[in-house]
């Protein structure tokens, strides 16, 4: 804490200090701070200047007592070192700020106990609402753990749930990307990134779409290789496993771009050409895939719309706790590049 020359701690400026500096009443300062319209522009400018000069900060507790809200949202994501979640967090923050809310970020590392804690409301109502992207828990369990605070889930739907959901249709996108490789003549396809022991979440749903597409085409599934994490290392290990077992394949459908990048790296080490010998696809449309060699064919989810809808829904729930739950399915787009087509896309 800053100190005055006497060595005593400097007192935090109050509303009355701002009012005295601006030559107005404390009620006028309150009106300016709370962005009310019944203040003349010249008076507002004088108050704002006094606030800046004094370094005045509003009290979060006082704001909550006056309005019943903090205008804080908590966003809980599995792993902020992952580019996809960093991009998602960035877009949520922008969407929230545009609506007058500040975002606090929590990282769960996909731990079930951490996700239960978030869904339950952090044991303290210091935020108005929560946006959660679960990884360690399925949506049914999260719904059961839900506490008193408004909660929006990013993830799979739950029949009869009282929660709002924003969903990427992972199963449908899995069919589409698999059909893309099948249309290119690939008939020995492997999926990388689904855990048989965790029958929920993006990897599992994308794998179901992969299986459905091949079943509809009358083409057998060559293999499904698990990946506990959507990382480059997981992709490289998957290829090493396939090579050690002598599995013959001409296409890899990877559950994320990072898995795909790691897989392509391992294929190069084994002298396997992409896409001449093996075509590779990913998910998430990360910038890394647009600059990899070869460039990566990917399934691009609409992250911007996911973030916008999540913020809209949680604010709607804050304003009306009894509103009927909504489910929003956001779009996705296949982005063909060299790793499947052999063609470098134009700028």
TrEMBL record:
One of its GO terms (molecular function) is DNA binding. The keyword Transcription regulation applies. It comes from the Bacteria. The keyword Transcription regulation applies. Gene3D superfamilies: 3.40.50.2300, lambda repressor-like DNA-binding domains. Coiled coil: none annotated. Keywords: DNA-binding, Transcription, Transcription regulation. Residues 13-67 form the HTH lacI-type domain. InterPro entries: HTH_LacI (IPR000843), LacI/GalR-like_sensor (IPR046335), Lambda_DNA-bd_dom_sf (IPR010982), Peripla_BP_I (IPR028082). Transmembrane segments: none annotated. Residues 1-20 are annotated as: Disordered. SMART domains: HTH_LACI. PANTHER family: HTH-TYPE TRANSCRIPTIONAL REGULATOR GALS (PTHR30146:SF109), LACI-RELATED TRANSCRIPTIONAL REPRESSOR (PTHR30146). This is LacI family DNA-binding transcriptional regulator.
